[in-house]
Design goal:
Radius of gyration: 16 Å
Number of helices: 9
Order of helices and strands: HHHHEHEHEEHEHHEE
Length: 217
């Protein structure tokens, strides 16, 4: 499974940013037809708004992807300690090109199921467009919670099933088979139940087949 995921993101490294940001007409049509027009740019803005502009703590970004949405925000948090982690060397390399000249940002190639952090080490854990790719989602939920401090925030967005038959078909028959997404996928009720098991407060919103949220431990 690991090789399949790495290969998928290696093959898509040159189109990844355009698809997410709707950088051309084909990606705009793809988002409109298969994703109900949900704007990843707007989702990213809402997710990043959960991180204070004067944040000066420890933040884990997993997976960092190419940092296409986070570049400006992370560069501006000069008093923070930011660690960018990704399973894909190709995604991590593109993130380094964007962020590597910032001394407060470090990079690790690793697995969300085995985070190289002590318990309660992070003030914020960010996971943007990642959980739908993780093979062991239960372990990913447990690990992201484990490394988060009491009172810290888990902030994320990702695909949930059950909101659009067209999107669910795409995910099952194309994205999962190619390795970009990895089943199983929670529906809204399953996700909310899991978040309430792990966190003291849960604030979440659904836009098409994408959920975004902020939880406090």
């Amino acid at each position: 499974m690991g090789d399949k995921i790495k290969n998928a993101y290696h093959d898509s490294k040159d189109i990844y940013d355009d698809v997410l940001t709707q950088g051309n007409i084909l990606s705009k049509l793809y988002i409109k037809f298969f994703w109900s027009g949900t704007d990843d740019n707007e989702i990213a803005r809402k997710v990043l708004s959960y991180v204070p502009d004067d944040f000066d703590g420890t933040l884990l970004d997993v997976p960092v992807g190419t940092a296409v949405f986070t570049e400006e925000k992370w560069k501006g948090l000069k008093n923070a300690k930011i660690t960018c982690l990704d399973y894909s060397a190709d995604m991590l390399e593109k993130a380094k090109r964007r962020l590597g000249d910032s001394s407060h940002i470090s990079f690790i190639q690793g697995d969300v199921g085995q985070l190289p952090f002590a318990a309660e080490e992070c003030d914020i854990v960010m996971s943007m467009n990642g959980f739908h790719a993780f093979p062991d989602k239960e372990k990913a939920f447990q690990e992201t919670s484990r490394v988060l401090k009491k009172g810290g925030s888990f902030i994320a967005c990702f695909y949930i099933r059950g909101k659009s038959k067209r999107t669910d078909w795409l995910v099952k028959n194309i994205l999962s088979k190619k390795g970009w997404f990895t089943p199983p996928f929670p529906d809204e009720k399953e996700l909310v139940r899991k978040l309430h098991e792990l966190y003291a407060t849960v604030e979440y919103y659904v836009d098409g087949s994408i959920v975004y949220f902020k939880c406090m431990k």
